[in-house]
Every structure is written in structure tokens, then in C-alpha cells.
Specification:
434 Repressor (Amino-terminal Domain), eight-stranded mixed beta sheet, 3 domains, Endonuclease, Chain A, alpha+beta
Length: about 500
């Protein structure tokens, strides 16, 4: 009797049981199933019934957590990189369901539960290409190595987003340093003709900050759609037009995946890298922060409040709040940077474009990006910060302010909360990522600097009705934000009085 080849679901289930150190019989007893069912699932001879699959998979996920040994649970945490048992159970269920659905799709399409090693398609739409690209292997967040060469700007906007968002586990607050993704795209300033393009780049940089992501420029990526995961998976095709992919090959054979993986990797050089991540400590110690403040042609795009607009006394207060065991910055260096920034804002011409959300989010959430360290301000500190910014707007003629009120495009999910500090010397982005990782992106390639410079200039010179350029209008808006903060302050005082009065009556 020939041995039945395992499908992806059976392989996944067997791997989980092995890592958790659970026997088939133990899982069967916990689920109140005959052990033969578990054996058939693990061997690939049978799948759980489709109509009850979600219930069964939820139960399996819960029992794997409950039955696993101490070392087995450590293995599972290492595999999925989560923080608690609830998250672990959810990601195990998610992984099992993805593999189950993939096997079901194989059965419906090819009449077999095991995928062919290699498949060819004469033509696919981008949507069909993306559905095949979203392979279950992307749910893995440990030891995942991806190389891609894709003409993303040749695709319609919604397809670009679907490719970048991918099928990796989506938890914005989680960091996945073991997911290594290098992407080569066809990019040049003359291709950027739409505001969507730099907005897409910003969204991609913010979204992919949760993994070890590298973005490269490559002329030969024009018309190509190649995506490969080392040892596991590849899909390759040619983009003939925004709605048509030709000669698509899909393979799970390592002999096909790895040569493609290494050929793309060899093209990823330092010279073609479009930006790189840095830490604030690196920027301070390498004097990049100072160079950014003193550079000519200063253009600031402010999507969240930063240390650049602090008065001296508030700066000192936040400097003390910042000094913890985890954040041992040189106080003298930070004071030096503060004084340089203050002097530059007194004497240098700077174009500063604020998003209104920077004010509204700050008024409500009270968070400031203080040298890439999030600090929560009190209501009084919030008011002092905004009042100082108002003074700058009123008194500093060398500072040219504009305010973007509302959305400029339908897709500003990330762009409205990011900051860019552009100059002829050094240009970098302060990304407002959910997990606080990879926040600083230094634009290392000349084309990237030109694209973001063009984006700022388009915004700055825009004639849209929701861009305020009149200083009186901007000052009026800032005063409204101060009024909001005062309302919050009054409500907090009233609540404290309501709490204290009953306590005083009891004391009497």
C-alpha cells in the first residue's frame, strides 16, 4: 500500500503536536474523539468536517495550549512570538484555519488535497495573482525569508495595498524581527505623477515597520511580479498592464524557490537601498539630528507633535520624565539639540505643514514624540505646549505655517500621523507606528529624497480649500485646540470635586 502524501493541514497539526509534546491519544481524549480520527487528520487521510471545522479547530487550539508541556509551550511561544496564552490560542487557530482553507481550495480546484509542486497559468488578473500569492506560509512569523521584485507602481492602488498588507499575521502592536522581507520596485521621480504614489510609500513604510523590511530601487522590476519565500514558495509572472498578469508560475518546490530567491538577493545592494532605519541614539551620536536641523531648504511635515516645538521650561520637565532605566540619553546632548532647534526656529526660514490631526490627537491623547520616546503630558503641559506653538505662529515671521484640515485623498490612513523633516543636508521620516519599532527612516537614496520633496511641494503649493495658509486662520484653529484642552481640564477638575465631596462628608 502506497504511503499517503500529507497535505498542509496535516503537516501543520503534526508540527503543533510535536512542538507542544502532545500525543495523539491525549488530544483525542480531550476532544472526546476516537484516536483514529486524530491519526487520520495527522496522516492526511481525512480532514475535520467542513460544517464543524471552526468549532473543531477552536477546540484543538485550546487543548494544545492546555495539554502542552512547559517546554512545549515555550516552543509554541518561540514559533508564534506572542505574549500570552490568549494570543497564542488565537494564532494557532488562525494558522490551522488558513491551512485547512488552503487544502479545501486545492480539493475543489484540482480534486486533490495535496497541491501540485508547480502550476502554470497563461493569464491571471491581479486579484487572482494576489490570492495565489497569499500562501499560508506567510502566517509563519519565525524564520521567514522573503525576496520580491515587483512593479508595484504599475498596479492599481487597491492592488498595491493588498500586496503589501499581504497575508502575514496582522497585529500592529507586535514586532516580528524574524520576518525578513526585501522588496525591489521600479521607482524613479519621473514615474511619480500622482499624490497617491508617495502616500502609498509612506503607508508601506509604516505598515511594514513591524518586520525586518528593506525597500530597493531596481530598473528590471518594471513589468515583473516575482515573490518568493526561501525553501517554501514562489510565484512569478509578467505584468502586461494594470489588469493583466501573464505567464504565471506558482511552485512550492525548493528547487524552484531558492534559485529565484538568491538571484533577487544578489541585486539588493546598499546603493539601491531607498531608505534605512535608524535609532534616535544613532542619529544623536552620529550628528544626523544636528545636520537635519541645520540643513538648508528646511521643510517639515508634521503629523504628530514632536520635541521641536517645546519651550525651555517644558523641555526640562519632559527631559526629567524621560530619564528611566530603559532610556539613558545624554542630557547634555539633548539640551544641545534643543538649543540648536530653538535658534534655528528663530533665524532660519522653515516651511512647516501641519496636519490638523496632529493638534486634535494631541489635545485628546496628550502624547508627544520626544526624541522618538512617547511621553504622556498632563493637561497643563498640553496647554503650555500648544500656547508656545501659538506664540511661534504669531511672532516668528521666518516660520511659514500651513495647515491641512481633513483629508486630501481617500487613503490617508497613515500619512496624516507621520512626520517628515526634509532638508538639503539630510531628510528623514518620524513614523508613528503602533508598536513603536523602526520609527526613524532616513531617506538614503536621491530618488527617495526627490519624491518626498515633490510630495511636500505639491501639498505646500496646493490650491485645495482645506489647506489653510492665512496665519490668522491657523492661529484661530490653534486657539480652538487650546479651548478644547481647557474643556478637558475643567471636566477633570469637576470629576475630582465630585469624588472628594462624598469623602469629605464621610469624614465629617
Amino acid at each position: 500500500m502506497s504511503k499517503i502524501e500529507k497535505n498542509r493541514f496535516s503537516q501543520m497539526l503534526e508540527q503543533l503536536l510535536t512542538l507542544a509534546e502532545i500525543k495523539n491519544v491525549a488530544l483525542a481524549k480531550a476532544l472526546q474523539y476516537d484516536v483514529s480520527y486524530i491519526s487520520k487528520w495527522v496522516s492526511g487521510r481525512m480532514l475535520p468536517a467542513e460544517k464543524t471545522k471552526r468549532n473543531v479547530l477552536h477546540r484543538i487550539s485550546g487543548e494544545i495550549i492546555r495539554l502542552s508541556s512547559k517546554s512545549g509551550k515555550e516552543n509554541l511561544y518561540a514559533l508564534y512570538q506572542v505574549e500570552n496564552e490568549s494570543q497564542l490560542e488565537n494564532v494557532i487557530f488562525d494558522n490551522l484555519e488558513a491551512e485547512y482553507d488552503y487544502v479545501q481550495g486545492m480539493q475543489k480546484m484540482y480534486g486533490a488535497s495535496v497541491e501540485p509542486k508547480t502550476m502554470f497559468f497563461v493569464e491571471l488578473s491581479p486579484a487572482q495573482y494576489i490570492s495565489k500569492m497569499h500562501h499560508p506560509v506567510l502566517r509563519r512569523v519565525s524564520r521567514l525569508h522573503i525576496m520580491a521584485e515587483m512593479d508595484l507602481l504599475g498596479l492599481m492602488h487597491e492592488y498595491r495595498l493588498q500586496i503589501i498588507q499581504g497575508d502575514m499575521r496582522r497585529n500592529g502592536y507586535q514586532s516580528y524581527p524574524d520576518v525578513h522581507f526585501s522588496l525591489m520596485i521600479h521607482l524613479s521621480p519621473d514615474k511619480i505623477k500622482d499624490m497617491y504614489d508617495p502616500i502609498f510609500l509612506i503607508n508601506m513604510m509604516a505598515d511594514m515597520a513591524r518586520v525586518d523590511f528593506r525597500l530597493y530601487k531596481c530598473e528590471q522590476a518594471a513589468g515583473r511580479m516575482i515573490f518568493t519565500v526561501k525553501d517554501d514558495f514562489m510565484i512569478s509572472g509578467m505584468l502586461m498592464n494594470p489588469n493583466r498578469c501573464m505567464s504565471v508560475t506558482v511552485s512550492s518546490d525548493a528547487d524552484n524557490c531558492n534559485p529565484l530567491y538568491y538571484s533577487i538577493r544578489d541585486l539588493c545592494t546598499r546603493e539601491t537601498l531607498l531608505y534605512y532605519h535608524a535609532t534616535m541614539a544613532e542619529m544623536l551620536n552620529g550628528n544626523d539630528y544636528v545636520r537635519s536641523v541645520l540643513g538648508l531648504n528646511q521643510r517639515w511635515f508634521v503629523g504628530h507633535m514632536t520635541e521641536h516645538f517645546l519651550s525651555d521650561d517644558l523641555f526640562e520637565e519632559l527631559l526629567e520624565q524621560m530619564q528611566t532605566k530603559e532610556n539613558k540619553f545624554d542630557k547634555g546632548k539633548l539640551r544641545y539639540c534643543h538649543m540648536l532647534t530653538k535658534r534655528a526656529m528663530e533665524e532660519t526660514k522653515i516651511e512647516i505643514l501641519f496636519y490638523s490631526t496632529a493638534f486634535s490627537n494631541f489635545a485628546v491623547e496628550s502624547k508627544i514624540d520626544f526624541f522618538d520616546h512617547t511621553i504622556q503630558l498632563t493637561v497643563q503641559q498640553r496647554e503650555r505646549y500648544i500656547k508656545h506653538l501659538l506664540e511661534l505662529c504669531i511672532n516668528r515671521e521666518n516660520l511659514n505655517f500651513k495647515l491641512v484640515y481633513g483629508r486630501l485623498t481617500s487613503d490617508c490612513q497613515y500619512v496624516v500621523t507621520q512626520c517628515s523633516f526634509l532638508s538639503d543636508e539630510i531628510s528623514y521620516l518620524r513614523l508613528n507606528t503602533q508598536n513603536g519599532k523602526n520609527n526613524l527612516a532616513i531617506l538614503s537614496h536621491p530618488d527617495m529624497k526627490m519624491i518626498f520633496g515633490w510630495f511636500f511641494d505639491q501639498m505646500w503649493s496646493g490650491k485645495e480649500s482645506n489647506i489653510f495658509s492665512d496665519r490668522e486662520e491657523i492661529c484661530f484653529y490653534i486657539r480652538q485646540m487650546i479651548h478644547r484642552i481647557n474643556i478637558i481640564s475643567d471636566i477633570k477638575v469637576e470629576n475630582m470635586l465630585e469624588i472628594l465631596e462624598p469623602e469629605a462628608e464621610i469624614a465629617e
